Amino acid sequence: MKWKLDTDRPIYLQIVEHIEKDIMKGKYPPHSQLPSVRALALAIGVNPNTVQRAMAELERKGLVVSQRTNGRFITDDQERIQQMKREYAQAEIQTFLSHMADLGLDTQAVIEAIQKVEGEKDE
User: Fold this and answer.
1) 3-state secondary structure of 46
2) Residue 101 to residue 12: CA distance in whole angstroms
3) How does pLDDT run across 4-63, given as a tens digit for each residue?
């Protein structure tokens, strides 16, 4: 597992985002067990307290469930996972459209550009 951490942002938030993306991609399917805090800390190269803080945030978000002595598991709530995907996609789209607006492109111009790129892929 290769982790690239940015020193400009809190590391625990980067761990949260990384695990969220792994959940969305299906690397960690519903009810699968996450690696232990110590194993993740070792793999990432950070203090276990940092990973613990990330796990607490994932639990707060309802994505991870702690089962006392058995470890932490991804939620069985498929709707919560789908909601996370929708929220992530919406945020990425808003960022993209903002960047395009900075270039002077309106939404219709962006749609046309996307359609052109998609058309070129099919050829």
Assistant:
1) coil
2) 32
3) 899 899 999 999 999 999 999 999 999 999 999 999 999 999 999 999 999 999 999 999
Q: Is 64 helix (H, G, I), strand (E, B) or coil?
A: strand
Q: How many CA atoms lie within 13 A of 114 on its CB side?
A: 11
Cα end-to-end distance, the chain, whole Å? 36
- Rounded Cα gap, residues 32 and 47, in angstroms: 24
Residues 6+ positions from 52 with CB-CB distance below 8 Å:
37
Q: What is the DSSP letter of 34?
A: P
d(CA 3, CA 75): 23
CA 24 remoteness from chain centre: 7
Question: 1 Cβ partners below 8 Å, 6+ apart?
Answer: 43, 44
